[in-house]
Amino acid sequence: MSDIEFVFLSQADIRATGIDMQTAMSAVEDAFTLHHQGKVLLPYKTVLDMGERERGRCNAMPAYVGGSYDAFGIKWIAGFPQNPRKYGMPRGTGLYILNDAEKGFPVAVMDCTLLSAMRTGAVTGVGAKYLANQDSEVVAMIGCGVQARTQIEALKVGVPNIKLVKGYDVNFNAARQYALEVKERFGIDAVAVETPEAAVRDADIVVTVTVADEPIVKEAWMKKGSLFAAVGSYQEQEFEVVLNSNKVIIDGLEHVIHRVTPVVALMITNGMLKEEDVWELGEILCKEKPGRENHDERIFFAPIGMGTEDLCLSYQAYKLAAEKGIGKKLSLFGNA
So which residues are the catalytic ones? Predict the structure, then answer.
């Protein structure tokens, strides 16, 4: 019996491919489009919860994507909040297994810690590309951890006119460090602020990347014509922020509702929102629904994050690695 070879890609290998945010956003757009066209298979995310705040959890996210991808795979990603403080290690770590859809064989096993962060940022970037005013200049970043880095990286691609980022974090030093990094890396003016109100007031785009389970952002602070991107896991804003938006957009309605905890799911369950009033971004990309229609619209975008997005990005990373001869070839059976 012949052996099966696959490639292992470390995080250093992924970086060496040169994969960038523009590529990530293109992959995410593919995922949204193919999802809406019914060319994907997407089971629900499985959450292995070992006490998310006290210890951690691990998510399994399988998916198949057709079209030019025709591949399937699974993301296995752990988040252990105490790691940085207790062990000096990252909060999140992940692996992606990518399989050929014809034979079912694995073709790659790769670190997806970086790719997952890029994917999350790319989803917001694509959302901003279609839903934000393109003359938006001021971003409020609520939560200044790892995800906040790829969020602004993607927003800079989706809305190139950004001139100021106001960062708020419960740890002010984290917000200050974030502001310094944004200035140095992206050449955008950035400041750390001491309250969420100071960040949100006058912001054209508001992004929340926290694990808060009580509202941080108040309706009274929101600017006319703004885009709110709710990227965290729970309710980070007052219900009125959603109710007073002209459009409510998500990535996959069925998956948002299944997750139960996101604010859109909570509001649908409680009868505060109707399913028909919530659109999927894929409908907009496929030109079946309008994106932003005027400068004064307020739009609420709350993606849950879907395995199809991870598959498309991991596939692109694998292709780049193959073109450049990057990675270590391994055999599945270990035959001589």
Answer: 75
